Amino acid sequence: MKKILLITAILLVTFSLVACNQITNNDSSQNDSSTVANSTDQSSENTSENNNASNENKVNSSGSNVLIAYFTLPEAVDDDSDTVSSASIVKTEDTVVGSTEHIAKMIQNSIGGTLFEIETEKQYSKEHDPLVDEAAEEQEENARPELSSKVENMDSYDIIFIGYPIWWGDLPMPLYTFLEEYDLSGKTIVLFCTHGGSRLSNTDNTIADLQKDATVIHDALVISRSDVAVTEQEEVDRWLESISLK
Ligand SMILES: Cc1cc2nc3c(=O)[nH]c(=O)nc-3n(C[C@H](O)[C@H](O)[C@H](O)COP(=O)(O)O)c2cc1C
Question: I want to staple 149 with a disulfide (CB 3.0 to 4.6 A). Which of 28, 119, 142, 155 is the partner?
Fold first, then answer.
């Protein structure tokens, strides 16, 4: 009887050892697979960390912190004028926009952001000669034309694109109003302009003087009005890449 009990006990111990061993093996194989899973996770975490690191200088991918403010004054043209020869407008199939607005939209197309047109209470003439005289008079008077459009939530933007045509070798006077109306301290200001030959005309330094506590990117996108309609999206993209905004 004692022998039978002893044999039963030995068998029980043996079975339980084998069972234990199997459970341990299963656990370790689970561990193995979870280790693989962990290492996969880790490697994907690393990748996203790297991505995050390399995205540090880039614009928020949704473009939600980007404001693209621009002033434009498309001149009146007859319906027959084509996109390229027209002085100050870009005609597409269904829109006619000023040169500066056209470039603003290309920037938005590339990185997103909110378009904002700087508009004035007064209506400028759309005829070239009276407009040129009006602008000259405003400049002489150092006028500050009142704006009719307002940025409601300037605080929510970190990157402010400012686009304008060159008028009489300077900023159009409504740009002075805009730059004096908002405090852009701590923000990054990125410039683009269209012109008829005067290029940037030192307006980057004028803007830096008006917004001393902002970071002004002096590498502006400067496009002649005769090139606006034929400017490729890639050119705008390349400029944005060159200033680490894409
Ligand atoms: C009132 C006025 C003054 C201008 N003065 C200059 C100038 O001094 N230098 C220049 O290169 N272009 C000058 N231009 C040309 C504009 O800068 C150019 O046509 C610009 O692309 C117009 O942009 P918009 O269509 O967005 O208004 C002037 C245009 C106007 C209407």
Answer: 119
Q: Which of 195, 227, 231 to mutate to test the pocket of ligand 1 (most atoms within 8 A of CB)?
A: 195
CB 155 within 8 A of CB 184: no
Nearest to 171 by CA among 198, 209, 203: 203
Using a cut of 0.70, tell me whether the model's pTM lies above it: yes
| Residue ranges for the chain with pLDDT beneath 70 | 1-62, 77-88, 93
DSSP-assigned beta bridge partners for residue 96:
91
Q: Which atom from ligand 1 is nearest to the alpha carbon of 101?
A: 26
CA angle 155-159-162, nearest 5°? 105
CA distance linking residue 69 with residue 176, whole number of Å: 13
